[in-house]
Design brief:
Order of helices and strands: HHHHHHHHHHH
Shape: elongated
Mean pLDDT: 76
Oligomer: single chain
Length: 257
């Protein structure tokens, strides 16, 4: 082979060598690149016990706060009832004291006594009834509500027409409220009896107010407000009217949207 032929052959092979060199980078560029996002997505989630525990504690804290609020609300109701009961007992003692003063021994007048024996007998009967009524009431202080309920029912059975019967029914309602647990149905029945059968009794205002507190205990706020408003409207000069107004101020009517 001549020198010219060898030279031509070399020139013919050179391009082939260059083509291989150009393809190498192309092949390299075809290799897929790593995707960091895909790698992260493919990594399984790792459980975090501390975070789970924190969420559980937050849920418990919320529940406890809600229960605490309800307990405080019920405690306020109980405190109001205790205050009302204390006021009622004080009121009774004052009324009994006034009654005893007004029913003191009558002046001796032999001529009048001979002329009106029936009247003298009536005063004696009232005094007997008063003592029986006070004994029934005192049994609450000494022996508790169960004994007082029995004593007061016995008084009513023995003296159904007594001037103290309206008060006796009212205090039966109070004694039922003092039971553990409070007998709301029995108490309501006694207060309603006072309202319906003894319209002129001073205990009517108290009975309306007590029915309002019972409705409040049953979460019947609209009915409670109506009963309290009745006390304010009909018995504006009574002590119960002040208590009822205080309740209305603390429990405004719900706005319907």
């Amino acid at each position: 082979m001549s020198a010219e032929q060898r030279s031509n052959g070399l020139r013919t092979m050179a391009p082939v060598e260059n083509i291989d060199q150009r393809k190498a980078p192309a092949a390299a560029s075809a290799t897929p690149k790593a995707n960091p996002a895909a790698a992260v997505a493919a990594t399984p989630a790792v459980a975090n016990p501390a975070w789970d525990m924190f969420q559980q504690l937050e849920g418990l804290r919320t529940t406890v706060a809600s229960l605490h609020g309800r307990v405080e609300e019920q405690q306020q109701v109980i405190d109001r009832l205790k205050e009302d009961s204390r006021a009622r007992y004080t009121d009774l003692d004052q009324r009994i004291g006034l009654l005893e003063q007004s029913m003191g021994p009558a002046p001796i007048n032999p001529g009048a006594a001979a002329a009106t024996p029936a009247a003298a007998a009536t005063l004696a009967d009232i005094e007997t009834q008063k003592q029986a009524y006070l004994a029934a009431y005192q049994s609450f202080r000494s022996d508790g509500p169960a004994a007082a309920i029995g004593s007061m029912n016995a008084f009513i059975s023995q003296y159904p027409d007594s001037v103290f019967v309206a008060n006796a029914y009212y205090w039966l309602g109070e004694f039922h409220l003092a039971e553990t647990p409070a007998n709301l149905d029995a108490a309501s029945a006694q207060f309603n009896r006072v309202i319906k059968e003894y319209e002129g009794s001073p205990k009517v205002a108290s009975s309306y107010y007590k029915l309002g507190t019972i409705a409040d205990l049953r979460n019947q706020r609209n009915e409670a407000r109506q009963l309290m408003q009745t006390v304010v409207n009909r018995f504006s000069d009574s002590a119960e009217a002040g208590l009822a107004k205080s309740y209305l101020d603390q429990n405004p009517a719900e706005v319907t949207r």
